[in-house]
Automatic annotation (TrEMBL):
It comes from the Bacteria. InterPro entries: MBL_superfamily_lactonases, Metallo-B-lactamas, RibonucZ/Hydroxyglut_hydro. Residues 12-210 form the Metallo-beta-lactamase domain. This is MBL fold metallo-hydrolase. GO terms for molecular function: hydrolase activity; metal ion binding. The keyword Transmembrane helix does not apply. SUPFAM superfamilies: Metallo-hydrolase/oxidoreductase. The keyword Glycoprotein does not apply. Belongs to the metallo-beta-lactamase superfamily. PANTHER family: QUORUM-QUENCHING LACTONASE YTNP-RELATED-RELATED. Keywords: Hydrolase, Metal-binding, Zinc. It holds the Pfam family Lactamase_B.
């Protein structure tokens, strides 16, 4: 999926689906765009791969910038009524990120897309670091935005790391630099060093949300 934002900057994005023995896990929810025929693009991608969107059991959100959270909910084109795009899933969102998104509604955040999270029961607002069902761990990182979180899914066979915008592209993992658009560029740089070290040591598969050329892979020295 692509989004043109301001000027001529083209943002390419891809949410991920991880299927484990017990879950269909979606990692970030995409832009929330519809196809010309009105079907949500992310729903169509899932259907094309034989997955019913109703089968998604968990939606793990790294943060709530609109290019990651636009697909959390969709408005009915006729009634305008908002519904969760994955009504059978439990959504995991950092509690402070939720508040921060409302306090900073406008440029990077779009409160209308995410307000529904406060009105539904199937949402877990995470605080700090923790774990989900004994095999998914999350850490608040705070480099890209103050309450950004990352996820590590340990299936027993594989360790799958979703760094969200702390590790958005493979090229970011290969050179040391502070990104201007990060909330805390120096912290972002240090986080990438740390993830790289842990990822090489423990054999993580990295998922890169903003890298459509190299969407995932393991890192080597
Ligand atoms: Zn992003």
């Amino acid at each position: 999926m692509q989004q043109r934002s301001g000027g001529s900057l083209l943002v390419e994005i891809q949410p991920f689906l991880v299927i484990t023995d017990q879950d269909y896990i979606l990692l970030d929810s995409g832009l929330g765009y519809r196809n010309p025929d009105g079907v949500l693009q992310i729903h169509q991608h899932l259907i094309n791969h034989g997955v019913n969107p109703m089968d998604i059991t968990k939606v793990l959100m790294s943060h709530l910038h609109k290019d990651h959270s636009g697909g959390i909910s969709t408005a009915d084109p006729v009634t305008g009524q908002r519904n969760l795009s994955f009504p059978q899933a439990t959504y995991y969102v950092n509690a402070q990120e939720m508040q921060y998104a409302f306090d900073n509604d406008g440029k990077s955040y779009h409160a209308d897309d995410i307000r529904i999270l406060r009105e539904r029961d199937n949402v877990v607002f995470t605080e700090g670091d923790g774990s989900i069902d004994g095999y998914i761990t999350y850490e608040v990182t705070g480099g890209h935005c103050p309450y950004h979180q990352t996820f590590l899914i340990d299936t027993g066979d594989d360790k799958i790391f979703f760094g969200g915008d702390e590790a958005p592209q493979i090229s970011y993992m290969k050179r040391r630099f502070a990104a201007k658009y990060d909330y805390d560029g120096k912290r972002g740089m240090e986080l990438r060093e740390q993830f790289k070290e842990r990822g090489i040591r423990d054999g993580w598969t990295f998922l890169y949300y903003h890298d459509t050329k190299v969407p995932f892979g393991k890192l080597t020295q």
